[in-house]
Batch of 2 targets.
Target 1
Amino acid sequence: MTMRFIQRVELTSNQAAIELTSIPSTFTDLKLVYSLRSNRSDAPLDVLFIRFNGIDSGYSRRQLRGNGSSSTSDTGDTQQFNVYGLNANNSTANTFSNGELYIANYRSSNNKSVSIDDVFENNATEAWQGINAGLWSNSAAVSSIRLTMLFGNSFLSGSSATLYGITAGSSGGVVVS
Amino acid sequence: MSYIALATTTLTSPDAEIVFSNIPTSVNGVALRDLVLVADFTTATSSTSYIFFNGNDANVTSVRMGGTGSGSGYSDTYTKIFISAGNQTTGQFATAQVFDFTATDKHKTALTRNGNAGTLTQASAGRWASTSAINVLHIKNESNTAFGTGSTFSLYGVA
């Protein structure tokens, strides 16, 4: 099977960050799937921060998001990928945001292209879905991924992040030219 | 759902068209349902890139939405299945999933995502109005300019 499970973090108590470390250098691409909720209590929405290798520079992204009645596009931070699709603790109860982060060629010495799709669910007037194109301008292989947030100070119990590795290769007699 | 790696290439010289041919309907007895293409463009080209099937780039309709980093975004229609916009620069990345590619009783549909952190993010949905099973997948750009050395293209089958 080309897509293999690497590791999963699922919180049984509130925690300030979720970190996936010691990512093996045996795959071609990485896919991170997450389900998160922040403890921010004064608003339904928080902002997810994503960093690689503990480094706080070299990030850029463009985002398009919509809420069912309008859409907006913006650019992101340079210190991390900032994604506007994080459920906070003032959103509908028991509702977690969903997202998927894909890193192509994470071991390459080139800069890393990243795609992030996310949704902030809420049974109220404010809910968002977003698509993001990101770039981490760094030649290092991605060896860890750290998730934190802007407004709250912890992810709630039940938040999870699962990391998969995808390996390119050949089979079935397909010819590429 | 499992991914099966079918073929991959990293360009050692510029190439104006990438072709995955002889795509099977099954691998080691496992029937394939969808195709997934992952493309990582390393150098700049100036033209929209797209995929088409079995040597036939006609009879395609698609809708696209995107954001450039300001304003409210855009949406339009097109006659090809996008995998990237024009003015590609280093760091553009694309995925495309083609559904039920072996079916002979339906048109073929695809969802694509692509983007470049310095320019835009996009998503599109396209349909090839053909009931033929897909056994060849092509990647080109509209001006027939070459994809740069170091660009990678990987094809997966989804069981």
Note: The interface with chain B takes residues 1-3, 28-29, 60-66, 70-75, 102, 104-105, 110-111, 113-115, 117, 131-135, 166-177 of chain A (CB under 8 Å).
Target 2
Amino acid sequence: MSRGLGIPLAIAASGMITELLFATNAAGPLRIAVTIGFLVCGPGLAWVRLLRLLDRMTEWTLAVVASISIDVAVATALLTTGLWTPGRAIGAIIVLAIGGSMVEVGSMISSFSSKSRARRPTDEAVKRRGKAGNDYGE
Amino acid sequence: MKRTRMIRPFGMSRPTSSGFTSVPVHLIALIPLILAIPLWIAALRATDPIAMTDIGLMSVLPPGFYVALGLIAAGACLAFGRDSLSGFVPAAYVAAWIAIVHATPSILYGSLRYSWAWKHVGIVEYIQRTGRIDPEISSLPVYHNWPGFFGAAAVLTEAAGLSNALAIARWAPPAFEICFAAGVFLIARASTHDRRLAWLAVWFFVLANWIGQDYFSPQALAYAIWLVIIGICLWIFPEKRLFVTPVVRLAQPWRPVARTLTVIDRLTHGHVTQNGLPPLTSTQRRGLFAFATLLLAVIAVTHQLTPVMAVLTLSALALVRRRSAWSLPLLAGFFAAAWVATGAAPYASIALPEIIRNLGQPDANINANLIDPSQFSSGARLVSSTARGVTALVSGLALLGWLRWLQHRRIDLSLTLLAVAPAGVLVLNDYGGETLFRVYFFALPPLAVFIAAIVYPSIAAGRTIWQSILSFAISTVIVVGSLTAYYGHEQSNYFPPGEIAAANFLTAHAESGSLIVEGSSNYPSRHDRYEQFDYLSLVAWSRGDATAGRNAYSLADIEAQMASDDHPASYLILTRSQVAGLSLPGAASIADLRRQIEISGDFTVIFENGDATIYVLASRTPRANP
């Protein structure tokens, strides 16, 4: 399974677009498609991808169920505590989705940095090269 | 020399076909589907739902509809047997079947079907309007005590900028069916590495699922989540050997017993490593366990029955798994109990005595589910008999598949226990007369795998066209019954535009606190400001026993109720769909009431069209709205 930055960034972007469409009260089928698509797929996909499952169909099945479960959990928590507003519910879900995406991005960056450090020559290797002669006259 | 072809299990890359490129092969495999779509579209254009009879939607669907289904079934059965095709092809056939069968009513009717879906829209509207739930509300309190589904639906509705959830609810059946299919595929893959068996199991599940619990409801969502929980349990907790060597050694003095234990152990253990899902690292296993824990908590706040089913089925699976597997049913029970004690406490305090009364009475609970067909029209009797028949047929086919596996020296303990465990709920409650349907619904995934085993009992068996022909034959036999049962009640589930207009007129003009007297609750009602009205249903339970299935009120009773000063205004609404769902005596009692109303002269008609009439008492004609 490819593990590039594309999907986590797309999840984060669609979350922000959802918030923008909601905040501006935009009308039309585009809002319906984007917001429902995000709420049904985005939050769960952001966290399920952290499992690094090898099978795409299984990943998406878990992602959709996880997304709807996150929607249920957030909505129930707000309703039972008397804090429900649509804005709070949507905002909390978006934060969770972006949070999951950022965890994945962070782990990718951390993994890339480790690999870069592994490839960079150590100080000892540089000293050994220096004893053999170098271009700096040291 | 006979040419043999190796079956490609899950996890093996698809080989490139010699002599052909991959794309044309896939396009050829999709030809039946491509031909079916225009036939379906033409069939939709030629169908008038208002002409439905008492056998439901099948009475008005043209032959082209069935030809389209036949093409889909033929193409699917051929595709399932060719493991050289990518998973896209069988998935496309499953999705096409779901679209044709489950999206047809949504497209044809142009509105939301089924009265309970309208009531659920009303709960979502309540949350949108008030921003809260009221667990102590007197009307439909159960939904305020298990608000998970409605809260999530309210989020989707508000995010999409919709004034109510009608547009989302209308497309719930095909959306949920796709979720169900994906969940069953997860379970099937956890039980076999034969991709043909897994896809065929999904196919038979989709065909045999006539129950109709796919409408906009908490049960549909909870069921989809339950399927994934079961799949995860099968995936992360491997099955253990039933009778390990020390146990067999202990039984040595009793040779027949020891021999029997050895045979059973070989039959149940031989397939244990057959898992078509990718192997897991310990981190992935822990992550999936955490995920399953979240899902168990979510179903506890979403639905009353599904957590019970989760406890029963997860416990059954834990019996043949290592001890750590018991954590899932324990968590399921804990979350359910915790929610009943806290969030759902107001409802539980009222409902618990009745639940305790019904405990341990499976006979009474079963009888509450079986209606008396003699009370209904010939078409309704046919539908009822067909539903019972297809349930028995599916169970019989599943038993045949189980025996076919035994013939191939395999007993799948997990699936066997999963098929039997849901019956445990019969001991608990009649669930408003629906327990039997729910038992079948929750047992269907493993039953579907067993039916698929008739065709593909092992990865080495079944490599000829005859397997596809057998799949098609079994599909035809199931579909004839399941389609009749699924579409059988559509005459009462369909609400024509005139009836919706009447319901909207009522909610727009009735002031808060009004009394609404209705023939039955089977019409588009309670979808808008539902808690502001009092409802009086003249027929208590349309499909119940003889007493509850008739109008329980005389004209004088109705006039007294409507004349009372307890309500600022009162209305009587009688619609076509209210009567369509009644028994013969029930329909006759409402027709009789209508005649009495017309003769009495005590009522004024304030709204009427071909589908509905709204009356008020002549002595209490309501004020005109400003």
Note: Residues 133-138 of chain A have pLDDT under 50 and may be disordered.
